[in-house]
């Protein structure tokens, strides 16, 4: 790998214009193609094999409009000045319904002036619009068009708010301000890290090219595979961070070699041969972690995993080709446009004298550092025991937003359970003629008798007479854990020959949570095992591979602890933009707890494990290089930390800036990702890589690089740390000594 990457880096440095123009054209063509021919999105959140999916499939079979895939849109009406049944207001509502009936794909408009359609105080009403033949992936756009059609009601002084009938997968997260903020913060960090504007812009440019290329590929792939709406935001979020980081590591190495007097092309070649290998292996760990989501049994999550992996592949490719080309073209001009009052970090000593001192300090007192770091990390991870998982309903949306307002009106007028109705679909043992059949009546009565069911609609038979549909309204809000128990109790109904299934948003999220709990151990085991195996191939050191996996799990504990503190305990939820309910007390405002979607921890685990392994690979590479030169383990740890500490810290600051910027998004799911990723990266790059890892490596001594002779013989020699031609000859003679004991 060292020779291959070295030749690639040297060729790119010598043919910089060819590589640069090729990448720019490719990125422009891919991005332009995806914008010119936007592919359809499919945010299908189905989970094959679950009871909710079976209910959903049965709903499409002969139950008519609103159940066959067209969907249902609900409009909430609110009259602040009096009852809706007052003549002028009632006439305005009827005019609005007449306009709704003329809208495309509308098959039925149910009046609010019916049983169950108007609140007890007669001030809140519900118009139900059933549709057929419309694009279910554009339900949000369709809802807004129907809301506009209800303008006659607004002209009469009524408030008309569309209810949110989408699932979390339907929500389109638009990119824009957060990415810009993240890039600006990254540029500032790079300017302070390098002290020159030219050097600072190289990682930014390379990352933008890689992100554009990745997004272009993802957009075009949407024509051949189902692509969720969240694909772009996840790819941008991760691709931007790793793209800047990988280019940063290469650039730092190159500038140190230039400061030592190495010619430009030779410096680029050595940089790609050594640090390029670390980039390839670091990217490989991220891709492995994301690909493991294929085992989660959740198609949407699996797609997000491999789609995000595309952005990581693009970042690795630009790092080992485009960055060397830029370095070759710029030559010594890489240090141009120095920023006043900032010291350039191009020299070896400037690159990490403070971190080298910290490494030496840790090496002198490893036990104290180990114990202290463990206590701090344990305290950070302790709140994770209070992590509250559950569905997230619109009651936690932004205060004043339409979904939040509709949720509050629905809960006030009809009860919180109306925001998450259960769709009960039962398969009957034989055809029945009508809903007066005794078996249908028994089923309806059984559903009514379930604890926590507030209201049951009249049963509806499908055209074949073999299935019956009943809508059940629970007493609890969708986010209430008791709603999930109601789902399970309804499914437990036992009648001879009747198979009862429950669908709807609450049932789907309940099944998603159960599936995640079932598959999480498998995903975690595969990620840890494959990542450790990759490190074993890279460094031929079993102890280092196992220790790296354990350290990454420690940083995950801190991330989940932060999530629990902010969202589950609620201390700080207001600071990240989560709005408590109206008329909350002072204590409720400070400790406003928010449930975390069940799939978020698994997605966070995959992303964080891969990103944390990046820093582990770069630190271990530097320590290994130093150890091969002189064989002194404690000195190698100090030198490795000294040569990478500043770079890793800068890379972590960039990642943290990018992830913190995403906390500004109004979507609660994105906020949880932003908080978890930012905290984990910050802890990983400081406490873990700065103190815990060096301390353990000093204590392990030669065991760090021990490898059984039988294993040493069968492992391929990938040499991720690389060897430079000017290294002393005894390096090659040391290798057999460190490979086996």
Automatic annotation (TrEMBL):
<feature type="transmembrane region" description="Helical">
    <location>
        <begin position="369"/>
        <end position="389"/>
    </location>
</feature>
<feature type="transmembrane region" description="Helical">
    <location>
        <begin position="205"/>
        <end position="225"/>
    </location>
</feature>
<feature type="transmembrane region" description="Helical">
    <location>
        <begin position="231"/>
        <end position="251"/>
    </location>
</feature>
<dbReference type="InterPro" id="IPR004869">
    <property type="entry name" value="MMPL_dom"/>
</dbReference>
<keyword id="KW-0812">Transmembrane</keyword>
<keyword id="KW-1133">Transmembrane helix</keyword>
<feature type="transmembrane region" description="Helical">
    <location>
        <begin position="272"/>
        <end position="298"/>
    </location>
</feature>
<protein>
    <submittedName>
        <fullName>RND superfamily putative drug exporter</fullName>
    </submittedName>
</protein>
<feature type="transmembrane region" description="Helical">
    <location>
        <begin position="553"/>
        <end position="578"/>
    </location>
</feature>
<dbReference type="InterPro" id="IPR000731">
    <property type="entry name" value="SSD"/>
</dbReference>
<keyword id="KW-1003">Cell membrane</keyword>
<feature type="transmembrane region" description="Helical">
    <location>
        <begin position="522"/>
        <end position="541"/>
    </location>
</feature>
<feature type="transmembrane region" description="Helical">
    <location>
        <begin position="304"/>
        <end position="330"/>
    </location>
</feature>
<feature type="domain" description="SSD">
    <location>
        <begin position="204"/>
        <end position="329"/>
    </location>
</feature>
<dbReference type="Pfam" id="PF03176">
    <property type="entry name" value="MMPL"/>
</dbReference>
<feature type="transmembrane region" description="Helical">
    <location>
        <begin position="677"/>
        <end position="700"/>
    </location>
</feature>
<keyword id="KW-0472">Membrane</keyword>
<feature type="transmembrane region" description="Helical">
    <location>
        <begin position="598"/>
        <end position="623"/>
    </location>
</feature>
<dbReference type="GO" id="GO:0005886">
    <property type="term" value="C:plasma membrane"/>
</dbReference>
<dbReference type="InterPro" id="IPR050545">
    <property type="entry name" value="Mycobact_MmpL"/>
</dbReference>
<feature type="transmembrane region" description="Helical">
    <location>
        <begin position="644"/>
        <end position="665"/>
    </location>
</feature>
<feature type="transmembrane region" description="Helical">
    <location>
        <begin position="180"/>
        <end position="198"/>
    </location>
</feature>
